[in-house]
Amino acid sequence: MKVILTTIVVLFSYVAYAQTKGQVVVVKDPLIDSLIAKRIELNKAKPTVNNPTSPAIVSSMGYRVQIYYGADRREVFSQQAKFKAAYPKLNTYITYKEPNYFLRVGDYRTRLEAQKFLNELKPSYPTLFIFREKINAPILE
Questions:
Q1: Where are the alpha helices (H) located in the chain, listed in sequence order?
Q2: Which of 2, 10, 76, 104 is the S-S candidate for 64 at Cβ 3.0 to 4.6 Å?
Q3: Of all residues in the chain, what percent carry a pLDDT higher than 70?
Q4: With contact defined as beta carbons under 8 Å apart, do 93 and 106 qualify?
Q5: 69 strand-pairing partners
């Protein structure tokens, strides 16, 4: 009985240690490769003069100037319209964090660019602040 039991234990231990070494098998969904290829393709598509509305979204950390904050929703949209009339080429962004709405403008790569624009706006807007956040990077010329 002991011999049979010992033989069984030896066979099971041999099977447990008999593994193939140096082989890795990757099991993945084939759609992963197509998603990676699509992402690479989108990153290659940059906005150009001929195609300014490229599907590529280029974003990085930068600065925006906050020109208004308050709890009145109608007032923030009014301020946005007023700003867009004066500066039609600049992007405006409205965010809501309870209980206030925030109107921030511009996409500046450096704080110095944002500060120059803030100084230009000082006569028109009473409370101006510069915030560092993720921006839609402007096209370099």
A1: 2-17, 31-44, 73-86, 111-121
A2: 104
A3: 77
A4: no
A5: 102
